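Tutorial, part two.
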Amino acid sequence: MTTSTLSPSAPLRLAGPGTGASSAPVWLVFGGVFAVAWLLVELNGGQFMTVDNLQNMAVRSVALGLVAVGQTIVLIGGSLDLSVAYMVSVTAVSASFVMQGDPDRMALGVAVTLALGAGVGLVNGLVITRLRINAFIATLGTSLVMSGVLNALFTNFTGSVPREFQALGYNALGPVPVAVLLLLAVVALAWYGLRRTRFGYHLYAVGGSAEVARLSGVRTDRVVVTAHVLCSLTAVLTGLFLVSRLRSGAPWVGPDGGYDLESIAAAVVGGTALAGGRGTVAGTLAGVLILAVVDQVFNEFEVNAFLKTLIRGVIIVGAVALYALRNRRDEEVF
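Running the prediction step on this input gives:
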């Protein structure tokens, strides 16, 4: 008996990106949230639709947006990654430590961090697929290992990045910040990979049903490992962006940003299913922007930090509930 290899035209495509993967509803929600935020800020005497304000919101969305794209990829494959926050810290510290403010060492610093990211992603993927350890436990363990190493070796800011590297965090091409262009490029590449490549179809198939995908000829372990490597690499990009803004790396930049749970929240708000097999990076980008707009309104009204957390939690739970109801209705119609 020969084992067939899945192609984008194979029957398993029914479980792929064409099934309930539209991000249009999320963007409609974003439009509504944006309009309400604009109205509230203007009624409060503030200015919402200014170039500076829109640029600031966009730049503040970059760090979470990059991580959320990678998190979306692993979630679609039926996994998740809780190590991304410490991967951000490892990247920031490693880049500034290697570069030491020397422009000639920028390429080396970027190469080292990318290699570290690929290595951590590979470890995560292999632990999950080879040792059959739950992704939550596996990536939590990896994050604890990185936390221990960082806290043992570094207690404060270390090294520095050269002024030329800070262009990533502060320069703009016309009215568009360079960092925003980086985010859009990553989103575009991820969209193409998920919608137009064999890996994308395989990923949706594995997230929909790993056993069915395996029986259809998909190398499920390879798909999951690749997804985790890509997720870690997006965390590396976030770390590089943050260190370009801070000019030096510190071990707390990742955990303080809450990029592990925040990235999952953004993906879920953007319509990605925690159970796997459903989601789009375009929807995740909309989810990130929704959270950014809400935060901007919080800042405008000087909302208490605890109340911010409460409201964000309500938004996330509400989004999950709405998507669950919509999916149930679609299944009943089907």
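Residues 305-333 form the longest helix (29 residues). In part three we will examine how such features are distributed along the chain.
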